[in-house]
UniProtKB/TrEMBL annotation:
This is Uncharacterized protein. Belongs to the short-chain dehydrogenases/reductases (SDR) family. One of its GO terms (molecular function) is oxidoreductase activity. InterPro entries: NAD(P)-bd_dom_sf, SDR_fam. The keyword Kinase does not apply. It comes from Pygocentrus nattereri (Red-bellied piranha). The keyword DNA repair does not apply. Signal peptide: none annotated.
Length: 298
């Protein structure tokens, strides 16, 4: 089913409307996030573009308002590589927004040189996992009050490239960009499982997904030949609009109501690696993430 859907890319569609609902999408000034925002805006949602670069985000906002005909698209500053920015963003949302029905943790960085976040976390783990983990924690009361509500974590098939290195989570002893990206995406899937368990009975459901191999700016840190190859082999890769479909599916598909914690690809349930289904590791990662962020989240 999933592979058939992948073959007929973009085949899934849904008439679901989101009038009166509020959505936050991180990293939505470009790529998959921007196309997800475009679709959900067309469905009538109030869309909050949570982005680190306000200039790029404002340009995206203008384009999306014009294209969707929905004026209720706003930009809010969020830099996931700095917990201070995550806390400030959450404070603004918790103060100004009456509800939050869909949170899409989409922003991501792939295979960058060794860098640390403002808090000293390895950049890919810090942005892709810890930044979103903290954001979700800080917005969770509002999300619960808005139930039925959904949290969508954009992971990747690249979760198979790494493992959770509990003894060197920040890759200080050794750094391999690909392995660190894999670790961060594995963390997205494991924390989705853990969160789903904790949210049982709240009306808030959680999903993780692989969007496909997508021609976006994600490849910016890779060598030019690889970037060119991604574009040349366009038959095997997706446009950002096609790449957004599984995020949109997880955000709106009626059939997913009541299901939580799963991993999706090609707008269908998908199989993740054995490591990504390891509940013991999921719990260890949860505890470590809380400890690193200095939060108490049981
Ligand atoms: N493209 C693929 O083939 C593929 C495959 C599997 C999974 N994914 C996942 O899909 C998601 C979206 O990626 P994409 O392909 O759309 O990549 P993209 O075009 O590079 O977009 C990534 C977005 O994340 C934002 N971002 C990066 N660091 C951030 C930070 N510190 N704080 C806030 N925002 C930040 C970027 O903002 P700036 O524009 O300011 O940098 C951009 O808006 C990612 O989670 C990625 O891991 C993509």
């Amino acid at each position: 089913m999933s592979s058939m859907r992948s073959f007929f890319r973009g085949a899934w569609s849904s008439p679901v409307r989101l009038d009166g609902k509020t959505v936050i999408i991180t990293g939505s000034n470009t790529g998959i996030g921007k196309e997800t925002a475009r679709d959900l805006a067309k469905r009538g949602a109030r869309v909050i573009l949570a982005c680190r670069d306000l200039e790029k985000a404002e340009a995206a906002r203008k384009e999306l308002v014009e294209d969707s005909g929905n004026p209720d698209i706003v930009v809010k500053k969020l830099d996931l590589s700095d917990t201070k920015s995550v806390k400030e963003f959450a404070e603004v949302i918790n103060t100004e927004e009456k509800q939050l029905n869909i949170l899409i943790n989409n922003a991501g960085i792939m295979m960058c040189p060794y860098l640390k976040t403002a808090d000293g976390f390895e950049m890919q783990f810090g942005v892709n996992h810890l930044g979103h983990f903290l954001l979700t924690y800080l917005l969770l009361d509002l999300i619960k009050r808005s139930a039925p509500a959904r949290i969508v974590n954009v992971a990747s098939v690249a979760h198979t490239w790494g493992s959770i290195r509990l003894d060197d989570i920040n890759s200080e002893k050794s750094y391999a960009p690909r392995r660190a990206y894999g670790q961060s995406k594995l963390a997205n899937i494991l924390s989705t499982r853990s969160l789903a368990k904790r949210l049982q009975g709240t009306g808030v459901t959680v999903y993780s997904l692989h969007p496909g191999v997508v021609r976006s700016e994600l490849w910016r840190n890779l060598s030019k030949p690889i970037q060119i190859a991604v574009n040349i082999f366009s038959l095997f890769t997706k446009t950002t609009m096609q790449g957004a479909q599984t995020s949109i599916y997880c955000a709106v598909e009626h059939q997913l109501e009541g299901q939580s914690g799963g991993y999706y690809s090609g707008c269908a349930p998908a199989r993740c690696s054995r490591e990504a289904s390891d509940d013991e590791m999921a719990q260890k990662l949860w505890e470590l993430s809380c400890q690193m962020l200095g939060i108490n989240w049981d």
